[in-house]
Hints:
Structural class: alpha/beta
Shape: globular
Helix content: 25-40%
Strand content: 15-25%
CATH topology: Rossmann fold
Oligomer: single chain
Largest sheet: 9 strands, mixed
Strand order of the largest sheet: 3-2-1-4-5-7-6-9-10
Number of helices: 10
Number of strands: 15
Amino acid sequence: MPASIEHPTDGLHVVSLCAGIGGIDLAFHRAGIPARAAVEIDPFARGVLADRFPETVLFDDLTKVTADDLTAAGVVPNRTVLTAGWPCKGNSVAGRRGGLGDAQSGLWVHVARLLAELRPRWFVGENVPGLLSVNHGRDFAVIAGDLAELGMEFCWRVLDASYFGVPQRRRRLVLAGHLGELRGAPAQVLLEPASSLRDPAPSRPPAPDPARTVSGSAGTSRSEHDTGLSYVAEQASTLQAAGDGRGDRLDAEMAAGGQLIVYSDGTVRRLTPMECERLQGLPDGWTAISNDRRQADSHRFRQLGNSVAVPVFEWLANRIAATDTAGTAVTLTMGAAA
Length: 338
């Protein structure tokens, strides 16, 4: 299990929806923000959570959990960071692109419901970049509208894990939202100052030898409490990283499907679960045990393919902690969390 938190951020705690094996929970734990409650439907992934976060109250069905359930578990809404890495299959460019009409990706409606019921201080969402374009952007407009109706200030950005110290390309859409008086806080947390400049110098180097050029997008919106309307307050420039095209990075999603082979000293082999854990920035053996029993590799591969790159969210969690502790939207040093 993670080391105990010696100096927790004053009162902040996490409610983790679609928690998986706790990658986001671990990231926030390292930033001094513990997980008070988590929701995960898969019994094997939930078993990993039980073993790694024994003090976290666990729920299984997102469609049935209510704000009353969470407050009974000790959740304090105005000190809560609600995180949600809801299923992305319906949004992926490699999938059927059903968007919010997909049975799994449509679970957003329950994320939005709990946001409205609980009204947490912070919100962090994670999904694939395809969410921005599925159904010609209409689904993302629905999500933005749901957040705006809450009076939540929010922003979004596509981040690549290869810029946070892990040797894989893993681009994910990250949303950050805040309910409160810290005007500009989500943008300050998620959008680095250099991002608003044209052609800025790189603020952090990628892992060695990027396999190919990647790009991302970012945006921010401020909702007006009296009208429920939202307007674009800032548009950050595209994040880019150029490479030499040699294709020597590893892709955890391919590995999780058992499709990726690597060459070592002239031999061919598949990645091991431990190597996939390292690709995601997880400690060795993080998924080895579930419910006090050793897991099959097939479960571990699937869980790791659905997980997040922990260093990305540790960077984000530290910025949230610093902003919340300061009590104002502060300028933070750019770069990934150590």
